[in-house]
Amino acid sequence: MSVPLLRTSGEITEIYTKHVNTVYRVALTMLNSVQEAEDAAQTVFMKLLTSKKVFSSDEHLKAWLIVTTKNNCRDSLKSWWRAKRVSMETIEGQASTPEFMESTVWSAITNLSEKYSIPLYLHYYEGYKTEEIAGMLGIKHATIRTRLRAARAKLRLIIEEGNYEFD
């Protein structure tokens, strides 16, 4: 049984080209695995292919992609399969790490819990305002600001102390 495409291939190509890096980085922030982030990005765009959702603007579409990515990653993190697998990074020569993942700041961000890392990424890497992040994540605006402030303090401690086990 095939599912009919609800968008043209040109529209999908344009959306993919414009938003794939955002989707991938949100997934990478949550999953901390290149391969799993690639799989999550693919899954999100497959959902877009079959979605009947009509978007009022490009920002609405981008917000939908981010929220769908976040939900997909949460499902993946809860999966029984995740506990039964061997990380590709443990298999010598199988995976290469992107350069930005080797930075001190990225290591510190990925060691924060999701409630801090996602708002931090969306605000500083994607340029969203705290009000927009609050709307996407379904959290109060003041809570986002508090989490950003706490995340900055935690990052400062992690980087100064070199303690990458901190959460």
Describe the structure.
With 167 residues, the chain is mainly α. It has two domains: 91 residues, Rna Polymerase Sigma Factor, Chain: A; 65 residues, Arc Repressor Mutant, subunit A (Orthogonal Bundle). It contains eight helices and no strands. Helix 1 runs antiparallel to helix 2, helix 5 packs across helix 8 and helix 6 crosses helix 8. The mean pLDDT is 80.
Write the layout of secondary structure elements.
Blueprint: H1 9-31, H2 34-50, H3 58-78, H4 80-83, H5 104-110, H6 114-124, H7 130-137, H8 141-161
Helix pairs in contact: 1-2, 1-3, 1-6, 2-3, 5-8, 6-8, 7-8
Q: How many strands appear in the DSSP assignment?
A: 0
Unreliable parts: none
* Main sheet summary: none
Radius of gyration: 17 Å
Q: What is this structure, in a nutshell?
A:
By secondary structure, this protein is mainly alpha-helical. It is built from eight helices and no strands.
List keywords for this structure.
0% strand; 167 residues; mainly alpha; Arc Repressor Mutant, subunit A; 8 helices
